[in-house]
């Protein structure tokens, strides 16, 4: 099935880009437009590997395709460098929301770590305020173009630093001003969520929802800690939960699987998996199963009833969009519109919103796919 240069394709006569979508796992510093990096970088004298937008986009895609999360994360040095001022943060956030709207997203959650944006004198509060200003400007710009979109912040702490409790309190203080949840990110292997138990205890006491990066660069112990220590309602990636599944036999399309206790808990409690197909290949998260998208355990998890969702992770690094990720899955697993609708309904159900607002999203998705 051909996918055009913008990642779009037609399925059953419909453009995937025009379908209503939910984006749950989308990093702000992973979705900066290359042209914006060049313009903002020029203002601060930042040395860049390329001076042309297309060439810089190629550079990001090449550097990110390393098979290592640690190497993948190094590319963020350039994007975060231009996000250290109120003007830079606001512009990046505004364009981020505009890009979501152009991708057909009707609700998105953008995650980012304020502690990484303080090198030019901003306070944590000022950084969050600048991003929120950009989000609201982007929502207004999208509305002017006839697209309704809402975007909430996932305030994120870096798992290899010691500021998680401080960042958790920051997130809760912004809960009525744009923050919808909390996350920890950064190098996963060797940095279990249990290191941040005090932050997660505080968030639980405030009834503030958490999603935790787990099961991407580390295995079942990381996922277990995310659920027990982090009280995670969603797993950032979570792809390695498939390591807790023992395939007993295959007969055609029939697969007999024995569940481990952790995998059964994640499935039965409908803990949302924020899967990011292209990124999972780039970082080596699915290396145990193969090197092609068709080897990704996405379909196995879906067929077994896990609450799978489709995400981009980092648009710039993976040179992708949510539309493109859906098109790639259709090509790999022969999904139809009903399957794609299920992924969006799973995402709507997992959104960090009140039940009434999640039900509204579900109605919008159903209407959009029916049309």
Automatic annotation (TrEMBL):
Needed cofactors: Zn(2+)
E.C. no: 3.5.4.4
Top-rank EC class of the record's enzyme: hydrolase
Species per Swiss-Prot/TrEMBL record: Microbacterium lacus
Protein name as catalogued: adenosine deaminase
InterPro entries (UniProt xref): A_deaminase_dom, Ado/ade_deaminase, Metal_Hydrolase
Domain of life of the organism encoding this protein: Bacteria
Pfam families: A_deaminase (PF00962)
Recorded family membership: Belongs to the metallo-dependent hydrolases superfamily. Adenosine and AMP deaminases family.
Keywords recorded for this protein, A-Z: Hydrolase, Metal-binding, Zinc
Coiled coil: none
Domain Adenosine deaminase: start-end pairs: 20-367
